[in-house]
Amino acid sequence: MKKLINVPNLVVDEMIEGYAAAYPQYVRVLPENKRAVVSVNTVRQGKVGVIIGGGSGHEPAFMGVIGKGFVDAVPVGNVFASPPPDPILACTRAVHGGEGVIYMYGNYAGDCMNFDMAAELAAMEGIRVETVLITDDVASSSAVERRRGIAGGFLVFKCAGAAADMGMKLDDVVRVAKKANDNIRTMGVALSPCAVPQTGKPSFVLGEDEMEIGLGIHGEPGVQRGKLKTADETTDDLIDKILEDMPLESGERVAVMVNGLGSTTYMELFVVFRRAEQRLKQLGVHIYRSFVGEFVTSLEMGGCSISIMKLDDELAQMIDYPVDTPMYVQK
What we know:
Helices cover 32% and strands 24% of the residues. The protein has helices spanning 11-22, 85-95, 109-124, 153-165, 170-182, 231-245, 266-282, 313-320; strands at residues 27-29, 36-39, 49-52, 54-56, 73-79, 101-106, 129-134, 184-192, 210-213, 224-227, 253-260, 286-293, 302-311, 323-324, 329-330.
């Protein structure tokens, strides 16, 4: 599978170098750690520091949302791999404004281990760190606490970033993030694989007439593989599984995100959103705000995910909060 890269083992560092060169008005790379990317204009005394992170290959997540109203720093891992503790700790020091720091990341073993280690090291330096795990993937487990985090994390990060920028204290930022995570569900479908630069080979195999429901953003197995269905049939499958896990009632408000995984066209994403809107309208559920595009990708994987977040007045305020970042702007 063809890629525009140089040396495979240098692709992440060269990506960060290019990103920082493209957006110097937003980010800088810490001189002491080239995997620590920090905002140039959001860190301030008295503000809770907001750090998210994970492996590369999910762009625009995670670096793409560093900026006002969103995230203060991102430690960057190798492709589909957790960042090590060193850049996480470097980011923590850089964004600490005296009110503590929140870590948010997907519920994966490597991320949990490395972020926890960084939090312990930060505590030894007198920096309070609290963690919120993203667990939005309905397909990954029947037990919510064991679920992995996928595209729905984007909306959780947005809510927490808004709370921090509004001046909330750490405990309240954590509360908002947990509430957002508790009220969001995601289901995805894969149509084609991706290839990690170091291997150049497909990460899994799907037949030309096959699709997989519930496949993870690193190629983890889904819950159902079968023949390719129409967009409406596929959307119904995803919505049905979300609603089984998080029932919605007439009159409720939601945010809906249709997220492309890397090679799915916007034409297809809007066809999927069209059906999702029809389904929710039939239930009397109001789509308060919609997000359609690429937010958390998997290199060039084909397919998409649907995330639905139930909103109360507070979460609606956070979803509405203005954002200015390199890859996402909201007025």
